[in-house]
Amino acid sequence: MTPNDDGRNPSGGVPDKPEATTHAWPDLGQHDEAARAAVAGIAALLGRPIPEKKAEPHTASEWLARTWEVNESALETVSRPVSPVLHLLYGFVLGRWIAEHAGDVVQRGPDRRAPQMSRLDLGSGTAVTVPTAATVLFPAGTRDEDPVAIETGYQFGDPYLTAHALPGRREVAERALDALSADLAADHPYRGRTLQASAPGRLTVKPVTPTPQERTDLVLPQSVWHETDLFCAGVTTRRDTLRALGHSTSRGLLLAGPPGVGKTKLARVLATELAGPLTVVLVTADVLRTWMTELYEEVRTLGPCLVVLEEIDSVGGKDSRGTTSFGEFLDALDGARTTDDVLTVATTNDPAALDPAVKRPGRFDTILEVPPPDAAGREAILRLYLPPDAGVDAGLVASFLDGATGADLREVARRSLLEHGADGLTTDRVLDIATSGRWKPAPVAGNYL
Ligand SMILES: Nc1ncnc2c1ncn2[C@@H]1O[C@H](COP(=O)(O)OP(=O)(O)OP(=O)(O)O)[C@@H](O)[C@H]1O
Ligand SMILES: [Mg+2]
C-alpha cells in the first residue's frame, strides 16, 4: 500500500505504518544536540526512527553548501591575504555592498553568532563600523548573475578575505574579489587624507590631523625650493607629460643635512601642500625597520600619494647591510617605483654614511642638501621667531651666529623671550644671549646634586 499524493491511503483505510514526517523541533538551548540524540535513540529503540535534523552549520562553507544545495567540497573558494588595515578597508566596501542590496543579502557571523563589526577611523573625528567577521551571501542577480558569498574574518588572529561560488564557477569568486579591490581603489575612504603609519607590533595606518606647515614658516635657499617643486611636478603639473611619454611619475627625494636645518619641517610643508590631491603617509622609524614591504602594498591602494620616511639612517646605513630589514627596505623602495604616482621623501643626517645601494639612481632621484642658513637666512629666521615690532637688529645678531641652524636660532629667540618677555627685548640683550651660548641645551653646572 502506498499513500497517494495527499497522504491518504487509496483504499481509505488507516495506513499500517505512518510515513515519517519532519517535526519542528523545539529549541533546547545549549543541550540541543545532546537532547536530540537522546530522543532519536529512544525512538530508534521503539522501532520508530525519526528523521535526523541536521545540526546548524558551523562554518561558512557548510552553510553555503547547505543553502545552495551542493557538495561542500565542490564549492569554489578563493582567498586573498589581507593586512589588518586592508581587512578593515575591504570591510568598508563590503558594508557598502550590503547597503546596496539590503533587501537581498543574507548575513551570518562566525560559529553561528551574529556578524561582527569593527570601527574604522576616518580621521577628523569621523568613524564608521564595518563588518570584520561575517559571511555575506549575495543571491544570484545581485552582485553577479550567479550567487556569490564574501567571507571576512580572522584565523589564529590573522585577518583573511575569501569569496565562495558555486562548483565550477571559480571565476565568479575571483570577480567578486577583484570588484571589491576595484571599488576600494575607486573610492578609498583614506584618499586625500594624512595618515600615520606606525608599528606597535604590526603595521597600523591611521588618519591624523597634522598641524599645517606653510612655506612662509621656513627659510631655505631658493635652490632648495626649486628642487622641491620639481619633485612634486611628477604627480602635479608634469604628470600627463611624463605619462604620455611612458615615464614613471613616481619620484624619490632624499633630504640630507645636519640636525636642525629644517628637513622634517620641509617634509611637513610638502605634506600640507599635497594632502587632498594626494594621500600623505607619515612613516615612523619602527615601520622602516620591519614593515616596508607591507607599507608599500597598502600605499598601492591609496592612489597618488606622498610617503614621508623620516631618518632612514637607522635602516639604510652601511652597518645594516646584510640584515633582512635592509634588503627589505631596498626591495620596497624599488617596488614603489613600479607603481605610478608615489612620491617618497626621506630625510637623513649623513648621506655619506648611507649605503651606496640606497643612493642608486632610481631609488632616490634627487639627493637634496639642506644647508645651515647663511647670514641672510639666519637674519630671516630670527625675524620669524622674534616679535615683529621688537626693534631688535636681527641682522647684527645673526652675524654673530655663524654655523647656527634654524633650530638653534629658534632657541635663541625662545630663550630671549623667556628671559626678557616680548616687551623687554633689545638688540644688546638678544646679542648677549646669542653669544653667551645660554640657549644651548647644555646642563647647567652646579645646580643639581
Ligand atoms: N630653515 C629654517 N627656517 C625656519 N625654521 C627652521 C629652519 N630650520 C629649522 N627650523 C626650526 O627648527 C625646528 C626643527 O627643525 P627640523 O626638525 O625640521 O630639523 P631637521 O633638519 O629635521 O633635524 P633632524 O635632522 O634633527 O631631524 C623646526 O620645527 C623649525 O621650528
Ligand atoms: Mg628631522
Q: What does this entry show, briefly?
A:
The protein has a seven-stranded mixed sheet, sandwiched between helices. Strands 1, 2, 3, 4, 5 and 6 form a six-stranded antiparallel sheet that branches. It is α/β, with parallel strands linked by helices and 449 residues long.
Query: Hetero groups bound?
Result: adenosine-5'-triphosphate, magnesium ion
The termini sit apart by 108 Å
CATH H level, superfamily name of the largest domain = P-loop containing nucleotide triphosphate hydrolases
- The count of strands amounts to 13
Q: What is the CA-atom radius of gyration, in angstroms?
A: 33 Å
CATH architecture level-2 label of the largest domain? 3-Layer(aba) Sandwich
CATH topology of the largest domain: Rossmann fold
Supply the CATH class of the largest domain: Alpha Beta
Separate helix tally? 16
Query: Main β-sheet: number of strands, strand sense, barrel status?
Result: 7 strands, mixed
Low-confidence segments, ≥5 residues, pLDDT <50? 1-22
Structural class: alpha/beta
